[in-house]
Amino acid sequence: MSSSVVTVVAPVNIAVIKYWGKRDEELILPLNDSVSATLDTSVMCAKTSVFASSNITCNEIWLNGKKESFSNKRLINCLDAIKSIAAKEKSVDDDFLSWNVRVCSVNNFPTAAGLASSAAGYACLVTALAKLYNLKSDVSCVARLGSGSACRSVYGGFVQWHAGTDPSGKDSVATQIAEASHWPEMRALILVVGDKAKKTSSTRGMNITAQTSELLKHRIQHCVPQRTTSIIQSIKERNFPKFAEITMKDSNQFHAVCMDSYPPFVYLTEVSHKIIEIIHKYNDLCGGIKVAYTFDAGPNACLYLLEEEVPKMISIIKHFFPSTTPDNLVTGLESTSELVSSDFLEKLAVTAETKKDLIKNVIYTKVGQGPTEVTDGSHLLDEHGLPL
Ligand code: DP6
Questions:
Q1: What pLDDT tens digit does each residue of the chain (388 aa) get?
Q2: Residue nearest to atom 6 of ligand 1 (CA)
Q3: 247 CB less than 6 Å from ligand 1?
């Protein structure tokens, strides 16, 4: 006996109020609320197929074409949590619950480079398993067991992860603030500075910060609560300058708490700092905030901006960070031709880099929907549950 293959595509999300620090490492309960935008799966996504059968002797997983061990605790916790909800909901029969599973997952962007690959991956896995086991309940708290930020990728648009207060984690869930269509002009440009794996993993980094940083305590008590309320309001009002200012300040404070950790660790590089300088000078010259930057646990920047600013921003990036293949630098959505006068570029008073390809790729995308089931039959596993 076997199930049919279920395949889901799930999005990446980039936080504007950062999650950094856990109060419970096992249940992945955060010290503070966080807020993010979910990005369009047509540009960046994880895709996962799942399959259950009485003929499978042990759980098996393939990640980006390579067979991996299923002994990862977070993976097991997610599968167990899904099965225990299925048992409570009686959504499948006991036989089905006892079968092992096969999982096959791929990302279409570099993993472990600070590009939120685990968020998309776990949101995808958990949503696919929830469909396989016919679950009705919200699965953001199961995705959270895989990777904290994954709980926000379970919804589209703008999303809040509520830290919650219950020790069981039952109120540490994500909810949607607004659909993607609420702010249709919102765009994101991801500047891929390096695609090498990061030095200090988020999990380890936030553990050091939670144990040693005084600044983190101040952040959690006096900054994040006010910022969360204000940024949610800015999203509801579609107030870009307010949204952008909070986003940049929160990114800067997150990197400041990394530096305040003992031993300290640094994710931003010289290129990241140059991007920060350019954005501030650009906003100053425009006489108002037009672009926001935010950086996760790596050197890549995510710029949030409205659609009308995109051509200008792309030409500025190309000017200051020359590429050996400028025509292939930008991937993702169609972008229009760019126009910024040389006069404007001069006024920015930033020296253009002479070294080429410091920015390897620019991914142009927008705010998008949550996970969706693939219905065109493009599964990653065949009818026996083996990788295609
Ligand atoms: C900087 O969700 O990757 O991207 O829960 O330990 O798996 P774990 O960490 P993870 O941390 C993400 C940190 C961040 C900020 C954010 O996405 O809010």
A1: 878 899 999 999 999 999 999 999 999 999 999 999 999 999 999 999 999 999 999 999 999 999 999 999 999 999 999 999 999 999 999 999 999 999 999 998 765 455 667 999 999 999 999 999 999 999 999 999 999 999 999 999 999 999 999 999 999 999 999 999 999 999 999 999 976 666 899 999 999 999 999 999 999 999 999 999 999 999 999 999 999 999 999 999 999 999 999 999 999 999 999 999 999 999 999 999 999 999 999 999 999 999 999 999 999 999 999 999 999 999 988 876 667 888 888 998 899 999 999 999 999 999 999 999 999 999 999 998 999 9
A2: 203
A3: no
Kindly state the DSSP code that residue 23 receives in the 8-state scheme: E
Amino acid at 50: V
Q: State the CB neighbour count (10 A cutoff) for residue 335.
A: 17
Tell me, using a 6 A CB cutoff, whether residue 203 lines ligand 1.
yes
Cα dihedral sign for 54, 56, 61, 64?
Answer: negative
Tell me the one-letter amino acid at 7: T
ipTM confidence score: 0.99
**What CATH number belongs to 186-366?**
3.30.70.890
Q: Decide the pairing of beta strands 22-24 and 29-30.
A: antiparallel
**Helices 224-237 and 240-259: crossing angle, nearest 10°?**
150
Classified as helix, coil or strand, 242 is helix
* Fold adopted by 6-180: Ribosomal Protein S5; domain 2 (3.30.230)
Cβ of 296 less than 6 Å from ligand 1: yes
Residue whose CB lies within 8 A of the most ligand 1 atoms, among 14, 202, 231, 272, for a mutation test? 202
Distance 327 CA to ligand 1 centre (A): 33
Q: Residue 30 CA: which ligand 1 atom is closest? A: 5
* The domains spanning 6-180 and 186-366 adopt the same CATH topology: no
Domain positions in the chain are: 6-180, 186-366
pTM value is 0.96
Residue 202 Cβ inside 6 Å of ligand 1? The answer reads yes
Helix (H, G, I), strand (E, B) or coil at 160: strand
Place of tokens 């279409």: 108
